[in-house]
Amino acid sequence: MLYYIDPGTGSMLFTVLLGVFGAGIYAARSLFVKLRFKAAGGKVKSEQTTPITIFSDDKRYWNIFAPICRELDARGRDVSYLTASPDDPAMQSGLDHVHAEFIGKGDKAFAALNVLRTDILLSTTPGLDVYQWKRSKNVRWYVHILHAAGNVAGYRMFGIDYYDAMLLSGQFQEDQLRALESQRNLPAKEVVYVGIPYLDVMRQRLAEAPALPEHEFTVLLAPSWGKSALLSLYGERILQILKDTGYRIVVRPHPQSFQSEKEMLERLMKQFPDSDRFSWNRDTDNFDVLRGSDVMISDFSGVIFEYALVFDKPVIYHNAKFDKAPYDSYWLKDELWTLETLPRIGKSLSEENLNDLKQAIDSLRDDPAYREARDRARSEVWMYPGEGAVRTADYLEKKLAELHPEAAQSAK
Question: What's this model's pTM, rounded to 2 decimal places?
Answer without folding.
Answer: 0.84
